[in-house]
Amino acid sequence: MASHQTYRTMLNNVPSARLDNCTTSENGGTHRGRGRTLLTDLYNLNSVEHVKVTRNSHGQPVGQEARLLAGYSGIIARNANMLHIKYESWHNMPDSNKNQALSNIKERFALEVSDAYIKKALGKKWRDHKSILKKEYFKKPISLEEKLQNIPPGMLRYQWEDAVRFWNSKKERKPRLVKKLDAFSFLTLRTGKKDGTPMTSEAAEIMEKLKDKKVEYEATASTDSSVNFEDIDNRIINEVLGPERYGQVRFQGSGVNPTQYFGSTSHQYMPSGSQSQAEVQRLKDQIRCNIHIAKLGKLAAFFKKAPLKVLVFSGATYSERR
């Protein structure tokens, strides 16, 4: 667990916006005696003082205190002593670590939002932090020894060495695993423009989710012989495109489901789709169609031997694209 001095250093390194503070005591009473609170002030709160964070009807934190919560959550997510970056994904992070991070936040905040919401937010910030470290410190064109010596601020040597050695071993075994998913990799590339960029921002989000899931399954497949490579494509598509269609409301942020947003009769009414949403749906249909073609005709091998032909779903018909 991080020392007091480590926390103080981390807090001081974060730009602090002055926010109106509302603190609550253990008996439930609230007061505003402390005035405005900075991120650096959170460390000095006594045991009976907490910053109260309210929520809206969708269970999301609101108000200026929500910004303070987000800033502090980012600090916790970057704490390698608590949430180590060596894990392949947030799902692989031990529950004990997640609970420790949640408890640390609750020591300073009186939360109306759910524990699940806080953990989900921590996971997002942890993934972003890990991605930045990989880009700025690991993916540089330098030797492995140089990478091991290039320790990011706030991390101990053994923590960084564990992460670098894990990423390096994953990089070495990647070609063998990617080869088995060539068809899937090709399909994700075909959902963009000619220059390879996604057609819409939502398309980009879907492609990012597909890639993240692919990484998770690659890691699992390398250590678990029960994972069937032939079934990986379908599992990834179903996880990313299936539940998302009915389990959340687009543009309404994290944690909002159709029942919360539209009420119990949400299945009877949905807002009219924008051009962007229609494009995303077309992309989903195209991906599902191409996955089916790939399984039946071994699409990956075909593309190496014949001119490119892809069946594109449009409305109720299929057309051929060369």
TrEMBL record:
Source taxon at top rank: Eukaryota
Stated name of the protein: Transposase Tnp1/En/Spm-like domain-containing protein
Organism: Gossypium barbadense (Sea Island cotton)
Lineage of the species this protein comes from: Eukaryota, Viridiplantae, Streptophyta, Embryophyta, Tracheophyta
